[in-house]
Amino acid sequence: MSVDIDIAGLPPERIRFCPSPLAELGAMLHALAEPGHHPGLHGWATATASALDADLADRLTEADFLWRSTRSDLLLPAVPRATLAEELDDLDRMDDEDFTSAAFEITCNSEYGKGWPSPLVDERQRARVLELSAARGPRQATFVARMLEDPGPLRGWLRRLLEDCERAFFNDNWQRVRVQLAADARQKGDLLRRKGLAAALEAVSPAVSLGEDGTRIVVDKLTSGRTRAGREHGVVFVPTAFGWPHLFAVHRPGWRPVVQYPVAAAELPQPTALRLVQRRMEALSHPVRMRLCRTLSRGPHTTGELAAAYDLTPPEVSRHISVLKKAGLLSTRRRGRYVLHQLDLTTVARLGSDFLETVLR
Fold this sequence. Notes:
Layout: E1 3-6, E2 15-17, H1 21-33, H2 42-51, H3 54-63, H4 84-93, H5 96-104, H6 123-135, H7 138-149, H8 151-195, H9 197-204, E3 208-210, E4 216-219, E5 225-228, E6 235-240, E7 248-250, E8 258-262, H10 274-284, H11 287-296, H12 303-310, H13 314-326, E9 330-335, E10 338-343, H14 345-360
Parallel strand pairs: 1-5, 2-6, 6-8
Antiparallel strand pairs: 1-4, 3-4, 7-8, 9-10
């Protein structure tokens, strides 16, 4: 599974790396709404939330469907600007149909990526949006109904909310991280020019790669999607200091593809390929292999020792050992004519966090 971005015929200059104030504000709002996704930001989230004015905190709760479970496409600008005000101006220039569709695409539409018409003009979509919003609670249902009835006032309300966030906490944090984000974007752009797209994507994240035929950017996620980067619009990569472990990819039909990626830091683990996480979990799901792991966690053992301990034949043990080795869960060394296997405790300990990072990615 992955999100694939078709870049066939796309000139390299149409691939941009650029920080975005609005995208970073979206990442901060998500971390405040779901601190459990971001254990490294727990102290920041607690301190920031406790310092919020009660009225601002209440308004954030009313609109948090735009950033709580995932991120609305509205918060990932296709044209990053230098200031939040400029990016909010771009949102103001969107027509009501596009704005409303993007606002409800994630939380109130189960068919993201299919390019359905706006609920402002399509009765089927309007009914779907109202039904799904009602399932998410009365506050969201009221918000959605008001937006569908008269988008203008709600759009103004939302802009004022984001501007209040800028004054309350965003501006100080943006000033702290914007230099780091700009430097990261420059470094990725330099890699693109000097070594090519494959090297630049590898530096973005191990979960982002160039397809074998060189015509696709592949974002390794536990979801499936496809989009095309037109020659006019290209692709934008937006670094974030507050976004780990999430890796967002906007692939809405007709929109410029945008990928928001967390900047690398020594304290953050590198993403593990989805297929490898699946292989490791499947390897550990067999009861015999679980029993073998118990013994191998205590020290190195030969195939013969394991066969005798569990009343299995050596070929049976070898087959199970082979599965565990292919999953990268064992280390193996030779001592004379004996081959010793041992459970890689570091890898197994990471499996829980690897799984969590993969599903949150």
